[in-house]
Amino acid sequence: xxxxxxxxxxxxxxxxxxxxxxxxxxxxxxxxxxxxxxxxxxxxxxxxxxxxxxxxxxxxxxxxxxxxxxxxxxxxxxxxxxxxxxxxxxxxxxxxxxxxxxxxxxxxxxxxxxxxxxxxxxxxxxxxxxxxxxxxxxx
Length: 139
Ligand code: CMP
Description:
single chain; 4-stranded antiparallel beta sheet; globular; Nucleoside_diP_kinase; Nucleoside diphosphate kinase
């Protein structure tokens, strides 16, 4: 059953390039409600754990190193059909393939530094939200 929630991170590239405010504005303008929000920084260890699902992929080491290279913004978002609608809003993983007007098309430079993360399923949205937020941090 759909929970109508998804999880996102504004990645170190978008934070360093000053896009936090614009990206949050795009997200809320698209109808997502912020349930939880945190400005934090991953370590090599916590980034490795978060992306464990990709451990066997050739890009895993670079991904972990990049995601722990600077602060990120983590958030749980709510909207009907949240996972799918958020993936439409952010665009393709590779910004070169991202549709006009999507967050990655506007703010990302490469497949590694692709500005935002979005959960790929309701199940992973719940797991990823739990990774960052306690029940008391959700409103
Ligand atoms: P994200 O949605 O955070 O999930 C895994 C990340 O790995 C992805 O965004 C990309 O930034 C990164 N990545 C790097 N290379 C690849 C690749 N070849 N395929 C998919 N993801 C990649």
